[in-house]
Sequence to fold (1005 residues):
Amino acid sequence: MIRDLFFERNKKIDFKKERNYISGSAESNDEEISYFIWNKKYRTGGESPTDYYKRISQCLANNPDTLRVLKTAVDTLLTDKEKEYLSQNFAPNDSPQGYLDPENIGNTIYDIMATHSFLPAGRIQYTIGTKRENTTMSNCFVMPDVPDNMEGIMKILSDAAMTMKAGGGVGYYFGKLRPRYAPTITTIGSSSGPVSFMKIFDSMCQTIESAGGRRGAQIAILPVWHPDVLDFIVAKRGSLNNSLTNFNISVGVTDKFMEALEAGEDWDLVFPNYEDYKEQYDEHWSNIDKIEDWVDLLGVPSEKALKVYKTLPARELWDAVLKNAYDFAEPGVVFLDKINENSPLNYTEFIHATNPCVTGDTLVETTEGRIPIKNLVGRTNCKVYCMKDNSKLVISTAKDIRLTRKLAPLFFIKTESTQLTCTPDHKIFVKKAGYIKAEELSLNDSILIKKNGDLYFTQEKITFLSPLGVTADVYDMEVPEHHNFLANGMVIHNCGEQPLPGYGSCNLGHINLTKIVDKPFQSSSVGVDTTLLKLLTIVGVVYLDHILDINHYPLEEQKDYELSTRVIGLGVTGVGDMLAMLMVKYGEDDSANIIDFVTRVIRDTAYFTSAILALHLGSYPKFNFEEFSNTKYAKENLTDNHTIFNSDGILDKGTNLLDVIRKCGLRNGRLLTIAPTGTTSLVANNISSGIEPIFDLLMKRTVIIDGLKDEKKDIIIPDYAVLVYKEVTGIDLLQETDAENIPDYFSCSNQLYTAAHIRIQSIMQQYIDGSISKTINVPTLLPFEDFKNIYTFAYKNGLKGITTFRMNPNFTGILQSAKEEKVEVKSQETIGETKKAPDICKSIRFKEKGENNENVYINITYDEVTKKPLEIFATLPKRSGETSGKFSYKLYFERKNQWDVICRLISLGMRSDISLVEIKKQLEKATFSTFDLSSVLLKVLNKFTSISDYKDETSPTADKDAKESISIVAYDEGNKELCPSCKVGTLIRKDGCKVCNNCSYSPCD
Fold:
């Protein structure tokens, strides 16, 4: 049976002997976290483990129609070889050829559940098959935007209470509420602002929690333009504030804000001018998605449509958000314009598509010549000219070229040689000023123009500006990385996106990736079981789709939305443990390749399965192939040829997935979501949670014994992969006192560079059509300046949002390290843990002059995310070995050894979190001589205080002779001998001795 395969095949591990988990053990007790969580949260009526697994699998096993479609999907999507493999290894013992035959399929699904290979979300495990008919199986719901009137607020409050009573979490958008102290219209008084109303929702949640015994979960979002955003940022401050304890809060950040931040511009905190436009406000504001929509609706300049409550530097607001996150882990940051960028449902969820746009006859500069933008609609590989670094002409690939709005108001711009008709809010690049809205341009502005046939930009003065007073259909496109294109020769900005609608919900299930590892911790055969991964994906999609039909929805609006879009959230868990079992380090190249492959297999299999479900059971009601096929997600993910179909099935191998969906339809509007899996992963033998790396080899979890009495206790938990490692190798890492003996692929969450976290998330996000939930654990000693760079790096890598957690005196996490030493916050003067530099990292090279005007090269490598220096190398000039006009190897290598030692010690200090200020103080105390490296290093280090300052092109400290490069730790190839000193260059023969061609090291020393 499958259970035998999972527990014993190719592993020779007796898991039952090592741990008494709930899957079949009669000795489970409250000291085991898996049993404790199962018994406390999911077990019902004293059921046995066998009864429990039957209960959560019976929704499929007892439904003949669903089983028939499930078997069709497996037979169609797997090759003959894969089906033979399943028959030999997965079939019930009494029917070797019938692993999915009607009489045995129930046993197969049972075994998938009993081995924790597919994990339904906690709400499903708690509810399904019980008498809890008024409890929802959805984890969370999104409410419509909280409206700016008391009746609407109370309606949302009531709906949220009913949702929480049924067991669902709730998310709210508070951006529609008037700011604090803003005057009311119908009464004499003023508004109390969004934060005050959040306190009402918080009290309601606390009441529902007390009644139901389950902690309520609420998420609040306030947009970055709202006048109360500064109060919102500090609304929660851990033990210092103890407010809004039933809320997680996030600031909704827009692309426009990030552009202002990068450009060093001011940022206006605004709200609609509802006093002068009361009628329009009452009728339209509650249905408007973006603040720009309000301006477009009125058709007046933004200074009339909006009231500016405060203006401050964008950097000041950004630092306020991140400083509170640094000290108190909130607010999170949600990039609103990224959220729907890859959603295959954005054609039906976008109520108002109001991007800045141009008219259809606008000529776009392509490699094929100038083509009207309306003739490019639907093109997936269109090469267009655009601008890089505010001056350079480059070629990039345009995406999502589309009709964005019908009958939009128009604005006209004319220069000496060209003209452009666009919407008033479209941004045009102005020399020395950056991107400016068309309606805000002046006749004094000079804009960049590329004349037809030219290979460079010229400047031209604007000769005429005017709104046209007419409307027309308008178009736009996206140009990743550069975010601009040439329209009639002018450099203009590309488009953005809109936020999500209300009443959606999360219906979740997770594939346990530790189960697809073939021969864990055995380097002779590293790989994943692709056939098993496909089977679990098929079962997961069919299972979650069926949940939609049997679920309880607290509100009729929620049921209508879910059944019209049939959104599910199939995800994964155990990513960190899987990578460790494959002996690769989280975030490095091998792990990135594995994650890319696994996620692509899941994406392909999930969409094929949904197409087969649609063929037999029907597509979701809002499905429209023409609009679906034009979404960015469909174009980037579903147009390649995929090869997972069986040649004997209803579809041929190599069929384009989008063609399959055209023929069959699609059952589910969205399919994939990577959610946090805290307690769900604990029940599955404490595998690493969701997409996260291993938290620690040994952890302490605080669990609630009785919520009403506030009784808690701590349980010590080993990581799952650590126990598997002990079974395979005989080595107990929990007894290892020397960190050097612990394999680096067991690097835990706060030991990894933040780039590793972001890299894995950005790879998975390419293929995930929903959201990804991830928390980046950062070291307590990480300086705030380095912490800020994490968020900018996340935005530039296309993440939809980011949450960080830094252990500090204000609070500790639910999950903690169980090491004997206590967690301490070390002072900045204390030497921290020495980090290991990654194999590949960026560097900056400085060129200085030595005694005889010879070149001295100083190379500083740094963390690409934090910009913190990691290592420094110096190349000693060859003439430093000369004395009386003759070269002396002895003298040369004596001086070189001195340089090497100094560089190594400084590098050690850099990786031990010693600040550059302290390092420079020590160098200043040196007695300088011509050949003393201290003087050369000090000269370089005095030019900047951090790599991030140096990287700022506007910084006066930037060195024109400094160059950026990539330092790569090379490996021996053929007869090349890697330099043992710098580990970059190779040893070559020179003057009868081997000398490094990079750092001049020689073994002749």
About this structure: The first strand starts at residue 118 and ends at 120. The chain has five domains: 2-135+505-664, 142-339, 356-493, 840-963, 969-1005. The chain has a mean pLDDT of 75. DSSP finds 33 helices and 35 strands in the chain.
